[in-house]
Amino acid sequence: MRKNSVKNTRINAEVMRELSVSIRNLKDPRISPMVSVTGADVTPDLQYCRVYISVLGGEESLKKTMEGLKAASGFLRRELAQTVNLRHTPELQFIEDHSIEYGAHMDELINRVAKEDAEKHVATEDELSMDSDTSEID
Q1: Taking a C-beta distance cutoff of 8 angstroms, is the pair 37, 20 a contact?
Q2: How far is CA 12 from its chain centroid?
Q3: Which among 8, 41, 57, 83 would be 20 to 30 A from 48, CA to CA?
Q4: How far is CA 91 from its chain centroid?
């Protein structure tokens, strides 16, 4: 099976969906309730799966969640074997994903620049209206 084949893409999507459901059902207090599975890459030989995890919260929350997920990887692999029909159930490797935090940071920067631009635009309009008012008086 090739890495970017339709079958591999379907397997990645199914594994991602099932893992996100299984992770939500974990009772480990280390795992944050605001955890998201942002991606899953199963190798073509179905031996390994890189699972990309994003956690809403601080760096400490992410660290504890990653520890909890690594401790629960055997349980999650068994759950995956029961829900997804694959020849081999892949070994799970959890990887931190900061893309959601990066996106939120970029959104904040864009909003800040847009607000500053709007303030400059209003100030420029006020100056222009003041100049036109003084020219009418002369």
Answers
A1: yes
A2: 16
A3: 57
A4: 21
Residue range 36-64: mean pLDDT, rounded: 91
**131: pLDDT strictly greater than 70:** no
Query: Which of 55, 47, 130 is closest to 88 using CA atoms?
Result: 47
**Contact (CB, 8 A) for 30 and 64:** yes
Residues facing residue 48 across a β-bridge: 91
pTM for this one? 0.74
Q: By C-alpha distance, which of 104, 48, 71 is closest to 63? A: 71
Per-residue pLDDT reduced to its tens digit, 75-129: 999 999 999 988 889 999 999 988 877 888 899 999 999 999 888 888 777 777 7
Contact yes or no for 35/53 (Cβ under 8 A): yes
C-alpha 110, offset from chain centre? 19
CATH code for the domain defined by 1-97: 3.30.300.20
